[in-house]
Design brief:
The structure is a homotetramer. By secondary structure, chain A is α/β, with parallel strands linked by helices. Chain A has two domains: 74 residues, ACT domain (Alpha-Beta Plaits), CATH 3.30.70.260; 195 residues, Formyl transferase, N-terminal domain (Rossmann fold, 3-Layer(aba) Sandwich), CATH 3.40.50.170. Chain A contains eight helices and 13 strands. A seven-stranded mixed β-sheet of chain A has the order 7-6-5-8-9-10-11, with helices on both faces. Chain A has a four-stranded antiparallel β-sheet with strand order 2-3-1-4, with helices on one face. In chain A, strands 12-13 form a two-stranded antiparallel sheet. In chain A, helix 3 runs parallel beside helix 8 and helix 7 crosses helix 8. Chain A starts with a strand and ends with a strand. Chains in contact: A-B, A-C, A-D, B-C, B-D, C-D. The interface between C and D is medium-sized, with 20 and 21 residues.
Chain lengths: 277, 277, 277, 277
């Protein structure tokens, strides 16, 4: 049972919150708390030793002791659901499908939507519905409407862009605030936009990276969840970088999903507070 | 102002402790708490927004709410002091002296003791007393007695073994429990004892490491504070490994000192709980 | 087209070898050469811009200029084949099957042999033959005989132990010299043998690792191909370490396979010379 | 004895070059060769087992077999010399002075020039001349002229900008082509220019970096020699990032200096070919 809180900081918050828990006879397994002193802002993650709690009661009790404008997120102990959008590259989707099949993803994959047919056969193997939504011969609006129509048939907590190579419009993104997770194949903010490995190769960098982030309406500018790099050298062609990069794309997306699905990430503005293990 | 606590776990500890702080009108800047569920053990680090507190009063109030057998460590906001023991290699001592000179060590270096004269000239440059204690023509007991005699002239919180290549006897170690910090030039528990780089070279490993740990009476077996590795390959001779290894020895010792001197490390048995930033 | 050479070092080897190539009108794309000066031993990897060469002719010409006792390995440009042995854990096998399905493994998976049925359904999805060989109610000899019998029906270059949790006897290993690749879930030589994560947890290390190595008849003592580590802290239980460890096991095995399958690894005694990109 | 070569690629280059060495009775300890197939460009680093050679003779023999427009760099086996420019931060200079004092820098520090007096006392300790060149009350041109005047009194191979916080004009830079090495406190090309840590903090990145590069006339755009990163999280203030960043700035500059001073770096246009160990 996880509770995430963010609010203006003031003296005695931890005492007040933990008293609420003690009064409700809830044992705190782990408390992670962070105060941004400059911004006078308080963030808390509580892990409670209980699968079911009276969430309404606890929330009311918390609202009673927290400053106005606070945000409380009580996560029911049910498995989350995700929808996955892909284009042609298999590595991130493959990793997600494997974890899903063996119950280690921390969520269940409800459907896969591809703007190419390429990954249908892989998805089929794992008995997950695959929906092909063509982006050719369609306006962006029409394409996104078609995607939304498919999504409308499912219930899900998050949309995962697992190497989905279309840029989503602000309108689409706004419909799922802080619920779309993307993997970008560069160490943001370096190499925003298209062909980051080509850009990296031309600049002659000695490290390449990948960034998992929530999607907002500015391209590659959303709150960063996780980043990772891998060393390269002069001998790596753009193709080599693409190949190497896939390894960290898969790994950093897996890590970001784990953090988000375990309710370890609090979004505040354009940043994240991430309470790792 | 830092308070470290460890005790048996029970429901309501965080509430009780933070109520003590709130009652004393102390604002918690940062609280890091960890419960080892298997061992039913509770660890807490509190950073309080206050330079001076009535420590006796706070400790009494805490003892009142904590279970018996608890350990409370209230760290006065005064700069710590360290003594440094060395042999011939300069890199760790050099780094410590530089940080000390520019006030970024988080402690003041009170003296350097060498069982060789090699590092006197470096130490002299920074106006730190250097004491040469010869280990030749002496029994281990006599050598350690001489070291103790020098140390007896100084007040210090920790002894840093900055590539000090003599093994200290259990008797010496027992006099400074959890107060001697060593840098061992391997990724413990691999390559315990002498010539770890030679051992690593013979085994053909692809990574070499360094380990900073508290010294106990079993060689290289004390609680680990920090570890780091660096990649190597077939082309690295033992000498190359020694050279490369120095970089991480210096870096991992610096990190461990920072963690210890900022009161981020709680020792429990043969392990550490480390509350990093 | 790859040529690997190892021999005693002497003046003029590179000149002589590259003259052989020039005479055969073969263009060298990349030459990686290493001389172990202490051991007076010479290693070379040549990448030639040609898919088909007269291997017998080139080998004869090389033998003409190399010192006696040299070893020449001319790798025909055909896709390698592998057999995979597993127990219950899916992550390494899953990664291998995905890469195999999308033609990025650099080899084709001929069969999977499991001493449990657990991974049959995954293997079936990818239309790779799965053979269950029971180890219960059988002597080790009888078990290995049964495995050998299955392997006898396939042609393969390497056997991959993808978290295969049985120790193979020297007799079995001797039948496939430098052709069995294992992933061990520790940073060897730390934590040899069973339950390395439990050992790591008890020792309180701050990094855990994984090691890919060729199997020899001494447990966990074969030539190391690749190693990797991941940071852990006090809060990681043994179970957490097992979970985290799987990520690097998969990643380090994938890297080792890539190195071996691209003919970048020369084994000499208990060590490897690895010519990375 | 090191020889660096770059030229247009053609069949038989390695054979021809190694024949030149064999004819001159020079034993090749290590040969590192790289062909950029796309650009049809050949790079070679030869380490020869000889301290003194007839450089003119070898160069003539090489010119005879290499294509027109080739570049040959025969490095005499004499210790290199460096000049160091600094502002106020001590960490990079301190590291360089320590290595210089203990003869592990691979070069001798001839002088230190500061646009502040801050680091004079440190430099004095190591008996290296310190020159204060004021940038206040002076035009940039006058300032650079004064720096040049000081430099004119020394002989040196490289100028090291060890956290020198003034931007040098194209004219100044042009006087020392590929001979000025800078450490920039970001993972280039992210966060070019001033206050990269503030920029990184505002973007909420999860890794910060440092980049050592040759200085050209475009700010932070010169050929990259080495890069490194360090993880950060939400709890790191700008000040924390500055502190953490110093550790990798020092480490990545040290590594770049080692690579350059061991003649392992070939510059070609805006990129480097780096032959690491």
């Amino acid at each position: 049972m996880i509770i995430l809180i963010q609010c203006t900081d003031q003296v005695g918050l931890v005492a007040a919150i933990s008293k609420v828990m003690a009064d409700a006879d809830l044992n705190i397994i782990s408390m992670r708390e962070y105060v941004n002193v400059e911004a006078n802002r308080f963030y808390l993650r509580l892990e409670i030793m209980a699968d079911i709690i009276n969430a309404a009661h606890v929330e009311a009790a918390l609202l009673n002791v927290l400053p106005p404008g606070c945000s409380i997120f009580i996560q029911p102990a049910v498995k989350k659901k995700v929808a996955v959008l892909v284009t042609k590259e298999y590595h991130c989707l493959g990793d997600i499908l494997l974890r899903n099949y063996f119950n280690t993803l921390g969520a269940s994959v409800e459907c896969v939507i591809g703007n190419h047919e390429t990954l249908r056969s892989l998805t089929d193997k794992f008995d997950i519905p695959f929906h092909y939504v063509d982006h050719l011969d369609r306006t962006k609006a029409a394409f996104e409407e078609a995607v939304s129509a498919v999504l409308g048939n499912y219930r899900f907590d998050y949309i995962i862009l697992a190497k989905f190579m279309r840029i989503l419009s602000p309108g689409f993104v706004a419909a799922y605030p802080h619920r779309i997770i993307n993997i970008h194949h560069s160490f943001l903010p370096a190499f925003v936009g298209a062909s980051p490995y080509r850009q990296a190769h031309e600049r002659g960098v000695k490290l390449i990276g990948a960034t998992a982030h929530f999607v907002t309406d500015v391209l590659d500018e959303g709150p960063i969840i996780a980043q990772q790099i891998i060393p390269v050298n002069h001998a790596h062609s753009v193709t080599d970088m693409v190949t190497l990069g896939k390894e960290i794309e898969e790994s950093v997306l897996a890590k970001a999903l784990q953090l988000v699905l375990q309710d370890r990430v609090i979004v505040d503005g354009n940043k994240t507070v991430v309470f790792e293990n």
